[in-house]
Write a structure and sequence with these properties.
Number of helices: 6
Distance between the termini: 54 Å
Oligomer: single chain
Order of helices and strands: EHEHEHEHEHH
Number of strands: 5
Shape: globular
Mean pLDDT: 79
Largest sheet: 5 strands, parallel
Helix content: 25-40%
Length: 165
Amino acid sequence: MEKPLIWIIDEEWPDYELEKQLLKTQYPDCDIRFSTYDYAADLDAFGENADAVICQVYAPMPAATIQRLKKCKIIAVYGGGYDRVDIAAAKEKGIYVTNVSGYCAEDLSEWRMTSFVPSGRGCSEERCWMSFPQSRPRIRRRFSTATSFMSHRISRTFPWIPSRN
């Protein structure tokens, strides 16, 4: 039996020791190869024979790349999004696509709250509502669609924040 080839396409992390450890535990004889987002030469050299691809959310996986994958069974994306993976091409080839559902939901919720609140209070890079008088009326966001949607998502992420939904 041929050794499984795992292809990691990423530029985010300084090392992949955790991935190596976990993959070697499950597949002791696996061959793990690494590429950056500029992986065209590696696709020619070994990537088209990968059994599995683990790629960063920023790595493009267009149909042209997926169609060249001869043995691939899964594309696993680091992160919550998979918009750079051509899902239709993967489905056509019978390749599963996974991601990390809920990845950074808490971080994103915190960021959205900190950016959303000042937007209704006249803040900008030049001035902040805490230091200067308002030049326009404040917009009450309490009943806006964005607030209702956002409060539901945030309340699931932060259970101590009550939701009106």
